[in-house]
Automatic annotation (TrEMBL):
Domain of life according to the entry: Bacteria
Organism: Geomesophilobacter sediminis
Family under the similarity heading: Belongs to the CsrA/RsmA family.
Keywords associated with the record: Bacterial flagellum biogenesis, Cytoplasm, Repressor, RNA-binding, Translation regulation
GO annotation, biological process: bacterial-type flagellum organization; mRNA catabolic process; negative regulation of translational initiation; regulation of bacterial-type flagellum assembly; regulation of carbohydrate metabolic process
InterPro entries given in the database record: CsrA, CsrA_sf
Top-level taxonomy: Bacteria, Pseudomonadati, Thermodesulfobacteriota, Desulfuromonadia, Geobacterales
Name of the gene encoding the protein in the UniProt record: csrA
Pfam families: CsrA (PF02599)
Entry protein name: Translational regulator CsrA
Function: A translational regulator that binds mRNA to regulate translation initiation and/or mRNA stability. Usually binds in the 5'-UTR at or near the Shine-Dalgarno sequence preventing ribosome-binding, thus repressing translation. Its main target seems to be the major flagellin gene, while its function is anatagonized by FliW.
Gene3D superfamilies noted in UniProt: Translational regulator CsrA (2.60.40.4380)
Cytoplasm among keywords: yes
Length: 79
């Protein structure tokens, strides 16, 4: 891990397309501004981990469940 000290208004460059600016330091909180290409998704880590967990759960399906849903859709029955 690279650890840097920056003051308000100072910038960290990550490659050619990403920059992180220290916007504000107040108490124990640091506000950062991030400039990156629009097609790049940026999450706080706790949100990123939650998205990964939900994606894993969505991908964890059972063929029996799919066949049951298909059967219900084909007959128009409701459970």
């Amino acid at each position: 891990m690279l650890v840097l000290s920056r003051k308000v208004g100072e910038v960290i460059a990550i490659g050619d397309q990403i920059s992180v600016t220290v916007v504000e330091v107040k108490g124990g909180t640091v506000r950062l501004g991030i400039t990156a290409p629009q097609d790049m998704t940026i999450y706080r880590q706790e949100i990123y981990l939650k998205v990964q967990q939900e994606n894993k759960q969505a991908a964890d399906w059972n063929l029996d469940d799919l066949e049951r849903i298909a059967a219900l859709a084909g007959t128009g029955e409701k459970e």
